[in-house]
């Protein structure tokens, strides 16, 4: 369960922010309900990710992030299989399915993400490993940054404490003598 929480707090947080930052495909569809549901869903993912980090349920560490990466790898594999299945089943589906590009990794659709779109134009086989590596790196950095920011808030509440003490959990109750 910790791996799923870690995935939500790292990759989910990053993915939610990316969708909110680049919502173009969501609004390019004629399915208004899907666009609304997608934005509500991704806002929820961001809120859950921030909650898990700020409340200390997930702390950045190698083992925690390894679990998150394993869940991410499974999710990417499922997304790639669904992208491929939908592409080949396209002729049998009603309507235009060009908006279907889970995680923006379809080998059949161009991604909208900056820098990744340039890599994908060169080769999907350059794009895909770069996507995995860079997404993992940014997810870890974002989790670490949110965790550090939440600890700075704790330092302001407990004057005289250091980030090191708070990270270890050595925080006296508010107002206690330091």
Number of strands: 0
Helix/sheet category: mainly alpha
The helix/strand order is: HHHHHHH
How many discrete structural domains?
1
Please give the radius of gyration in angstroms. 20 Å
**Which range best describes the helical content: under 10%, 10-25%, 25-40%, 40-55%, 55-70% or over 70%?**
55-70%
Distance between the termini: 37 Å
Largest sheet properties: none
Oligomer: single chain
Could you list the spans in which at least 5 consecutive residues all have pLDDT below 50? none
Beta-strand proportion: under 5%
Total of helices: 7
Question: Per the principal axes of the C-alpha atoms, what is the gross shape?
Answer: elongated
Q: Mean pLDDT, rounded to whole units?
A: 84
Set out the fold topology.
Elements (H helix, E strand, L loop, with lengths): L1 H20 L2 H5 L3 H23 L7 H28 L26 H7 L1 H34 L5 H6 L10
Explain what you see:
This protein has one domain. Helix 1 crosses helix 4 (about 60-90) and helix 5 packs antiparallel against helix 6 (about 125-155). The mean pLDDT is about 85. The protein has helices at about 1-20, 25-30, 30-55, 60-90, 115-120, 125-155, 165-170. It has about 180 residues and is mostly helical. It is elongated.
Quick synopsis:
69% of the residues lie in helices and 0% in strands. It is mainly alpha-helical.
Quickly list its features.
about 180 residues, mainly alpha
